[in-house]
Design a protein that fits this description.
It is built from six helices and 16 strands. With about 325 residues, the chain is α+β, with helices and mostly antiparallel strands.
């Protein structure tokens, strides 16, 4: 028996019993012209072209993992969406080899009955990673096969949806495969209205005078300050001897209120500002000298303000209470 690591999950194990049933050997589809494999059989990233990947919802750049022949593991390629928060459930993987037998890779794992995708017979194999990990393989020759892998651990009934969509596209570049059906590029998600807002413009110079901070504000966040990976923000240093802490405003166009809260704490108070309602946290992480407020701008975006007072905890939320109506008035319609 042999055990293999899966491509997308951190430790996807593939193993089977003592007998095996092999997926059918590829045969040219009726009337289809043979399609040669990629020039480099150790580059499965070439099994999906940019227009195919666009239709599947991925950027063209895949991550290549070279073949590990000693472990009978073929070369593989993984694609993830551009979203930095994408999980393994959002990924697609493809293995391809011309010098490893399918039986050696799966070590006797028994597949389900084959189904035809893109003119080739593909069989699903069970994964020790659980029902959220979907594996489909097609045998191309005695020592050649391709495998497509997708995941959905949140809804295991959909684990194979992406693999089934991708198999005809992959098959088009394999011997005996049929031409791929066209895929329309997935429409890009409209950016959040927060994406075009400059955080440092949310408080004017005249307004900042009442907050005992130094102006102008300092831009923070990814692509705004060195080595930062945080969302766009602005911070204002407190005036000397004021006792106040740094006043900080952060706009996250991709994360909800719950995701930027970072704690399980419930809001101590709600503050209305026009049609908006902010959640105020008067003792975040058990620190009475700090204060934070979060606006659920939309279901998937939020605005967060933090401040505090080192000298007088009773004034910890003073700046936030004054800043909330001013900031709210300058935010776009959510």
């Amino acid at each position: 028996m042999k055990v293999r690591l899966g491509l997308l999950a951190a430790a996807v194990l593939l193993a089977g019993g003592c007998t095996s049933t092999v997926a059918g050997v590829a045969a040219p589809a009726p009337g289809a012209k043979p399609v040669p494999p990629p020039k480099d059989p150790n580059d499965p990233c070439g099994l999906l072209l940019p227009d195919q990947l666009a239709g599947l919802g991925f950027p063209p750049n895949g991550k290549l993992i070279p073949e590990r022949k000693a472990q009978d593991v073929p070369a593989s390629c993984t694609w993830k969406p551009d979203d930095p928060d994408a999980s393994v459930d959002d990924s697609l993987g493809v293995y391809y080899t011309v010098d490893i037998a399918l039986e050696d890779f799966f070590g006797g794992s028994q597949p389900k009955e084959p189904a035809t995708y893109g003119g080739l017979q593909w069989s699903q194999y069970e994964s020790l990673a659980g029902p959220g990990n979907c594996l489909y393989a097609t045998k191309l020759a005695d020592a050649s096969f391709a495998l497509v892998e997708s995941n959905n651990n949140k809804d295991t009934s959909k684990a194979c949806d992406l693999a089934k969509l991708a198999m005809p596209q992959v098959a088009a570049h394999l011997p005996g495969g049929s031409p791929a059906p066209p895929l329309a590029p997935k429409p890009k998600k409209a950016p959040s209205a927060l994406a075009g807002v400059e955080p440092c413009d949310l408080l004017s110079a005249a307004e900042l005078a009442q907050f005992q901070v130094t102006a102008p504000g300092r831009k923070t966040g990814k692509d705004r300050s060195p080595k930062s990976t945080t969302p766009p923000g602005c911070e204002w240093e407190p005036a000397e001897a004021s006792g106040f802490q740094l006043l900080y405003v952060s706009l996250d166009p991709e994360k909800s209120e719950a995701e930027v809260n970072y704690t399980d704490e419930q809001a101590d108070e709600q503050i209305k500002a026009g049609t908006r309602s902010w959640d105020l946290f008067t003792n975040p992480d058990g620190n009475p000298k700090q204060c934070s407020a979060i606006l659920p701008f939309s279901e998937k975006s939020s605005v967060k303000i933090t401040s505090g007072n080192n000298n007088d905890p009773a004034k910890a939320c003073e700046q936030l209470r004054a800043a909330i109506p001013l900031i709210s008035a300058k935010l776009p319609t959510g």
